[in-house]
Write a structure and sequence with these properties.
mainly alpha; four-stranded mixed beta sheet; two-stranded antiparallel ribbon; disordered N terminus
């Protein structure tokens, strides 16, 4: 009797006995019905147990066969993803070897070595230490490196990282590029992990084809490739940010008995992300919002839900703090809040607000002192006045629209077009994906982008919003979910695929100038220096190409170099340059060129371009 009145689990998941549940209904609607079935249903119990384990990995049931990509079997999918990651790795290895040290890399390397040799987390404290701890590890094992420069006296919280990086390059002039290469190789794994994570995340949200699309965008994006091949924390922080959101997704749909373990895993990953870059602090409100949305829902007792939410968030915050202390080596543990100084307006306001509490100054600092001082110094940078540049304009403060403009000229045309279409489709029709999928895709993107745009004290680096990029790729991948492909005609599906391929081709054509990539709509690499400055186009990455150009000139040709950098240029150009008065050619970088004339994207008198950032001028008699 029971078998005739209650549908089986398989029939519920496929919508066979419920016409209102199409094969594209979200598992958020179908799984609760499954779990509500009587425990003594012998027909449904096996499916019930397997669904409890796997429901977090289900984005939607498979579409009808006529809407599947027939040749994209699971095995071929994995091979395709592996090929994409292999191509990205080969490109990154070329950049690792052929790109000179950028402006920030010597400082990160010096800070990492100080952490290994002296357990000092205060060098470069505006960036947390986890990433540089890893990138400096292989350099520490190289017995030929000299670190006497790091033993010079320095003050805690002082911005001395660039001076130490310069001294380190002077002290190890002959082999400095080798140390940079070792540090870069140590960080290449982050890109591969990011590609795998993006494939898993997109596949679970929008299907297997969407996973391949997201991975393809990640592996061919010039920004990801350029910064992933550098010894900087930007890509590691981006990958850890993505990993935390992915685990949040798994936590939301795991079985209740496994939720505590999942919260712990999310907390550990959040702590690691915060200990890599301070932008990851935004993961704290993000997880709180998603967990509240999960626990406080219709049909659940409000008071019990609030108690569970409070307990879960307390556990989460406690673990995040412990992980941060551990990464900082518990340096300064027990330091009283009263002995710490903050200089930013925001930090002062927080201290003033809490100073009314009794014994506040005698309480131990909840976070490592180096972390608190680093956050305060970073906030001072955003509150102060620093030169910012965009599209021929220079000011002592930034612009709220900078990141929008920077993405419009730095992202490939295919990514821009597809992301606009994806955003429009989300507003018009969200079929084939759960509400949680859209929240996990758009909420991290909005949090990072809006927070960065609000901090307009200075705006020079698009890499500050690099954690947004995986979620842009997820948005684009949502266009390739089965329900959307069913709704679109064959011509529109072909157009989407063509746009995607064109995006990858555009990125490949500019290689190895990936760091200085600008899309064709903005004029390409030729005029990129005029649109944006600093790490967007000129970060000192083309000095090896300059060395090769000088070596190719006839004997006796004098070349003078005027390049802004934080290393000793003799690491690359020893014996190859002359004084300005003796030069036949003068080499300027984009940063110097902008200071001379930035009103129009035209360079008069340039006889040679080297890479994306260097300009050669013939010296006038």
């Amino acid at each position: 009797m029971l078998a005739t009145t209650i549908p089986s689990c398989t029939s519920i998941l496929t919508g066979a006995t419920h016409p209102q549940l199409s094969p594209f209904s979200s598992y958020r609607q179908t799984v609760p019905q499954l779990l509500a079935l009587p425990e003594h249903c012998h027909m449904c119990e096996p499916a019930r147990q397997s669904t409890r384990i796997e429901c977090s990995a289900i984005a939607e049931p498979d579409p009808p066969s006529e809407f599947r990509v027939q040749w994209l079997t699971p095995l071929r999918t994995r091979l395709l993803v592996a090929c994409l990651l292999a191509v990205q790795l080969v490109g990154a290895l070329v950049l690792v070897v052929r790109s000179s040290a950028t402006r920030n890399e010597p400082a990160h390397l010096a800070a990492g070595l100080a952490l290994w040799h002296q357990s000092d987390p205060w060098v470069y404290c505006v960036n947390p230490p986890l990433a540089r701890l890893l990138i400096a590890a292989p350099v520490v094992l190289d017995a030929t490196i000299s670190t006497q420069a790091l033993s010079r006296a320095r003050s805690k919280g002082g911005r001395e990282e660039f001076r130490l990086g310069f001294a380190l390059s002077q002290e190890n002039r002959a082999h400095f590029h080798r140390y940079i290469v070792l540090a870069r190789i140590a960080g290449l794994g982050w890109m591969l992990v990011g590609g795998v994570l993006l494939y898993r995340f997109a596949s679970e949200l929008f299907g297997r084809v969407a996973g391949v699309v997201a991975t393809g965008l990640w592996t061919t994006d010039p920004m990801v490739l350029a910064h992933g091949s550098l010894a900087t924390p930007d890509v590691p922080a981006t990958v850890l940010f993505l990993a935390t959101v992915y685990l949040t997704h798994r936590c939301m749909f795991c079985h209740r008995r496994a939720r505590c373990a999942m919260i712990l895993s999310v907390a550990v990953m959040t702590g690691a992300a915060v200990a890599t870059k301070f932008t990851a602090v935004l993961l704290l409100p993000l997880f709180s919002i998603m967990l509240a949305w999960k626990l406080i829902s219709p049909g659940r007792h409000l008071l019990l839900s609030l108690l569970e939410l409070t307990a879960s968030l307390c556990l989460y915050m406690f673990v995040v703090v412990i992980v941060c202390w551990a990464v900082y080596g518990f340096d300064g543990f027990g330091t009283k809040i009263g002995v710490m100084q903050v200089n930013s307006h925001l930090g002062s306001a927080i201290v003033t607000a809490f100073s009314q509490l009794a014994l506040f100054e005698h309480l131990p600092a909840p976070l490592p002192p180096a972390m608190i001082v680093g956050l305060d110094l970073q906030q001072c940078d955003f509150e102060g006045q620093q030169d910012s540049y965009v599209r021929g304009m220079m000011d002592d403060s930034g612009w709220w629209w900078f990141y929008l403009y920077a993405m419009s000229v730095k992202c490939t045309e295919g990514t821009l077009v597809l992301s606009v279409l994806a955003a429009a489709s989300m507003l018009v029709w969200r079929g084939g994906a759960s509400r949680a999928a859209w929240m996990l895709t758009t909420l991290p993107l909005a949090l990072v982008f809006c927070t960065a745009s609000a901090k307009s004290g200075f705006t020079n680096h698009l890499r500050y919003v690099l954690p947004c990029f995986p979620f842009v790729f997820l948005m684009v991948a949502s266009l390739f979910r089965p329900a959307m492909q069913q709704a679109l005609g064959k011509a529109l599906r072909s157009l989407l695929l063509t746009t995607l391929v064109a995006s990858g081709a555009a990125a490949a054509l500019v290689f190895p100038n990936s760091l200085g990539y600008f899309n064709t709509m903005s004029g390409g690499v030729a005029t990129g220096w005029w649109h944006l400055g600093d790490s967007n186009v000129d970060w000192g990455q083309d000095i090896i190409r300059l060395r090769d150009w000088i070596d190719s000139q006839p004997s006796g040709t004098g070349v003078a170099v005027e390049i802004s950098h934080y290393i000793d240029l003799n690491c690359y150009l020893a014996g190859r340059t002359v004084r300005h008065a003796e030069a036949d050619y003068i080499v300027l970088d984009a940063a110097s060129l902008v200071l001379i004339d930035h009103k129009e994207p035209v360079v008069e008198g340039c006889v040679q371009r080297i890479g994306a950032s260097l300009f050669v001028f013939a010296r006038r008699p």
